[in-house]
Amino acid sequence: MKKIYLLVVLLTIISCNEKRSIEKESPSSKQKLIYAIKNVNIIPMTTTNKIIENATVVIKENKIHTINKSIPENAIIIDGKNKWLTPGFIDMHVHTLSDGTPFVMYPTRGPLVSFNTQYNVTPYIANGVTTVFELGARPENIGQRNEIIRGDVIGPRIALAKVIGGNKSNLTAQTPSDGRNAVRFAKEEGYEFIKVYTWLNEETFKAVIDEAKKQQMKVVGHIPAAFEGKAATDFFVPHFGLIAHAEELSKQTNDHSYKKAQEFARLAKENGTWLIPNLSNMVSIEQQAKSLENIENLPGFKYVHPLMQNKWLTSNSYHGASKDLIAYYKELVDFHILIVKAFKEANVPMVAGTDAGISGIIAGFSLHQELKLLVDAGLTNEEALASTTRLAAEWLGIDDKIGTIETGKFADMVLLDKNPLEDISNTTKIAGVFVNGKWIAKKNIDTMLLEVEKWNNVNKENYNWKALLNSFKN
């Protein structure tokens, strides 16, 4: 059974035989170009967030060099007139596809499937997502990050959380001793955060969190099923720093009232636990259950690898749900909105995350949907922006490097044609993106996306999810 599970999980990995460089379209990381954005309106996303109008921003190497000072003679000028500059967006919950193999067939065999990292991360960059929090990290994700750091791939910064669960997870732990050892292994292997998962028993869940604290590793994740039906005070454990979904709360109770949402918010506040509402997750599940057309019509669907397109349309576990189950999904959607309202009321910090990579949640594109849903749930436009910039960077512990537009910080920024503080949907009006100091203009973004789309179209007939599964079963 374990091999079959690993097969199913890792067959979400996609295949690509070509690796084509886009360095013609964007400057290489080895080029030390200087840029100056003139006459731009800066939304710095600092705590005061005072707009700096008609400003000049100089980017040297990969950092914000100066604001409103002289422009070096050799700077490349970018016209920012009537445009708005924000920090790069951070998606705090993603699952990035990567090379891998479900089990060792023979020594030296290597991955059964592989793919083009650039194609995989292009949708993030195209949507201004310059940092992601990988909540199912494996060694292959470290390899992806290394490709990006080397400059071989233009992609987001990647923070890594290793999953620890009772079963069906990266590292299994069924006893407190197992859990503590798993945390130590994760740290030694280079992972930065721990993700607790659904199948941990109560004692092991608490031991994992306690050991993570000793190892100075923050904890994000699920509330184990073992706590269902118990008091909420049982799972709000000190150092459990971030809940991965509002769904983790809604599945703990049948009481989906605002009063219950307020109870969760109060306990989270007392425990210092932040929340990733992940509203887009349950909205997507409800939509998939209703019709597969809601998948095909998603913005960005054509940039999803053809194997995943086929899986989402032919092996969709949500589609075909009964009317009662669809009604239950809608009940959860509504309760998650109440959770956001209650957490805002209680001043519990919330950060934007989408579960990008799972069925119906498209990398990069989903972040804009999440921000819109957060605003619809009661956050102001500025609060929604903070959830995907300053606050996200703060929880990750890198707010001294990214998350705001300030001199000395890394040049991860998004240039927008319209003001997102007036309408949060304006986060989609992207004129260009700075990725670690590299300027990617809209025309180059379009070229990058077109390359992904063309490859997907050419190779669409080569990928069939059910046939692939059957080939490994036989």
Report the mean per-residue pLDDT as an integer: 91
What is the CATH H-level superfamily?
Answer: Metal-dependent hydrolases
Give me the Rg, rounded: 22 Å
Largest sheet, described in full? 8 strands, mixed
Task: Count structural domains.
Answer: 1
Instruction: State the end-to-end distance.
Output: 15 Å
Give the low-confidence spans: 1-30
Rough outline: globular
Structural class given helices, strands, pairing? alpha/beta
List the helices and strands and how they pair.
Elements: H1 2-10, E1 34-42, E2 52-60, E3 63-67, E4 76-79, E5 84-87, E6 89-94, H2 117-126, E7 129-134, H3 139-150, E8 157-165, E9 171-172, H4 176-188, E10 193-196, H5 202-214, E11 219-221, E12 240-243, H6 247-250, H7 258-271, E13 274-275, H8 279-290, H9 293-296, H10 306-314, H11 323-345, H12 365-376, H13 381-387, H14 390-396, E14 413-416, E15 430-435, E16 438-441, H15 442-459, H16 465-473
Parallel strand pairs: 1-4, 1-5, 6-7, 7-8, 8-9, 8-10, 10-11, 11-12, 12-13
Antiparallel strand pairs: 1-2, 2-3, 5-14, 14-15, 15-16
